[in-house]
Amino acid sequence: MTFHVKKLLYGGYGLAQKEGKSLMVEYALPGEVVEVQVYQEKKDHAFARAVKVLLPSPARREAPCPYYQLCGGCQLQHMEYPAQLKAKEEILLETLERIGKLKPKGMEEPLHRGEFGYRVRVQLKVSEGRLGFFERKSHRIVEIDQCLLLHPAINDLIPSLKELSKKLKTLKEVHVLYSPQEKEFLLKLLLEEAPPKEKFEKWLEHTLPPQVVGVGLYRQGRVYALGRDFTFVSVAPYRYRVSMDSFLQVNHLLWEDFVRHALPPGKFSRALELHCGIGFFSLSLAQRCEFLTAYDSNRSAIRDAEYNARINSVSNASFHYETGLGALKRHAGEVVDLLFLDPPRSGLSQGEAQLILKNRPRQVVYVSCEPTTLARDLKVLAKGGYELQSLRLVDNFPNTYHIEAIAQLTLK
Fold this sequence. Notes:
The protein is an alpha/beta fold. The protein has three domains: about 60 residues, CATH 2.40.50.140; about 190 residues, Rossmann fold, CATH 3.40.50; about 110 residues, CATH 2.40.50.1070. It is built from nine helices and 23 strands. The strands form four sheets. It has an eight-stranded mixed β-sheet, with helices on both faces. Strands 10-9-8-11-12-13-14 form a seven-stranded mixed β-sheet. A hairpin with a 6-residue loop joins strand 9 and strand 10. The longest helix has 20 residues. The termini are far apart.
């Protein structure tokens, strides 16, 4: 069966039509004519994989990675990088219009740097001594020797991690965090059963390089840790402590640009930040306001944020352990000039959105990692009196379908 691909969808699929229903085609690009193999039929749509490209797009390229189409980590390596950026912008705008009925006043230049070597955090899957990533839509592991998206230092560590995975028979996942400035690693090992601490310590001496400064073993929570459970990273002009159980933005090439462009113009009296993490945006945000109150529901991240404010002499920011909803309830009725949001993929809860509308902060910055929940939430805020001033694509995950964005809103 051959089909004409109309456009690219969120998820990395090319959209075609099959007998009146949508056909989502893996590894197909807009404008192409492809021969497909349908692998899943549903009532109003179907999924297929392109098996032969009869009329290729000018944007098509040979994927640089030898594991591409086996490994499920990337979905867009067959597309030239400038075309990826353009397609992601179109998907972002179309999603906002379709779900949110919104058009931004201005679309800013997208944030991007290199398309490879950008990841300093990664979760590697392990099974029976094999280490790599899951196949697309499967729990079968594609064993890898390297990944083009990873910082080269993490790729250099992979042989040692493979050796470790052969010793730890119940190992399921290895979470790696690398600090490009300190040139050191933290590891989290997720196991079904943890070995005795003394035995494991001896294994590590002969398996991992000295650049691995901390290892935590986890089985429904941390069992124990060896070495340091934190490292430091720098995002000019600040230095941040990042602990093993805290979150850090993945793409180190965009750290400085991301912070700079997420900050709204102007000065603010009182700012409120939800989902602040280790204070990645907070320290710079505090320079724009008289006082910043920031919240996160991760205790480790809040401890890091408090520490980071101290070591960087930021005295007008306070950090608290609380959910987004709980934080908004705490500040109900207060005058807030700026609300800065960086929620998880699920976006705002209904209760959070309603409390924002009740409190009516003058300005809102929404950093999003999921365009569909962004569109849903902005629709609610727009109906409640906010205007979408600007929107900017942040390509934190080149060669994948993931789309991040910065939306700036003001009260009408």
